[in-house]
Specification:
heterodimer; A: 114 residues; seven-stranded mixed sheet; B: mainly beta; 9 strands; 0% helix
Chain lengths: 114, 113
């Protein structure tokens, strides 16, 4: 299995809703990432998990809450989002520490906040 | 190239011609560079990478050139095909940021039949 799987592919949520994005990989990668991508812009790093511990938080608002239950799973919990949070949310993984950094990206969750 | 406002730089190329996509990076301490291809509705897909101790690397139909003096990276695609139509991003890792992958602005490639 050489894929990063993200669910759902599309999500529409209201500003008072609570939802979660899920990401899964079975490549034995020990680093996992959340990126946010607005239209016509490059992906921007949000969070990095290394060996299931949060190692980087790029000053992301607390309405985004990441969680790494085990080495294969990464979640992003969403609460009280704003319309400007609408974007493509990408998950990636890599074999941290290996000379070939080899990031693998999922296809993303297209989030619309209404 | 860097994205400006809401518009991505666009490269239109005739099918069969060669394409050259350019990228300027900012972190002189970066030691690893990657080119990604992103098709509509998909995540970035790895194309080719290069380490800072190299100035050229070739793959299948693609070549990456690195000029550390002017902090410039380019991607050359030989015999461009319709399936090459996508947005291309350069990315860098290394230096003080460790293995934090940072993307540069994208370039849209449109292949004309």
């Amino acid at each position: 299995d050489t894929e990063v799987t993200q669910t759902p592919k599309h999500l529409v949520m209201g500003m008072t809703n609570k939802k979660s994005l899920k990401c899964e990989q079975h490549m034995g990668h020990r680093a996992m990432y959340w990126y946010k991508q607005k239209a016509k812009k490059p992906p921007e790093l949000m969070f990095v998990y290394s060996y299931e511990k949060l190692s980087i938080n790029e000053s992301v608002p607390s309405r985004f809450s990441p969680e790494c239950p085990n080495s294969s799973l990464l979640n992003l919990h969403l609460h009280a989002l704003q319309p400007e949070d609408s974007a493509l949310y990408l998950c990636a993984s890599s074999r941290e520490g290996h000379l070939n950094y080899g990031y693998t990206f999922g296809s993303g969750t297209r989030l619309t906040v209404v | 190239g860097e994205s400006v406002g809401l518009h991505l730089p666009t490269l239109s190329v005739q099918e069969g011609d060669n394409s050259i996509i350019n990228c300027a990076y900012s972190n002189s301490a970066s030691d690893y560079f990657i080119w990604y291809k992103q098709e509509s509705g998909k995540g970035p897909q790895f194309i080719i990478d290069i380490r800072s101790n190299m100035d050229k690397r070739q793959g299948q139909r693609v070549t990456v050139l690195l000029n550390k003096t002017v902090k410039h990276l380019s991607l050359q695609i030989a015999a461009t095909q319709p399936g090459d139509s996508a947005v291309y991003f350069c990315a860098e890792i290394g230096g003080a940021a460790g293995n934090k992958l940072t993307f540069g602005g994208g370039t849209r490639v449109l292949v004309k039949p």
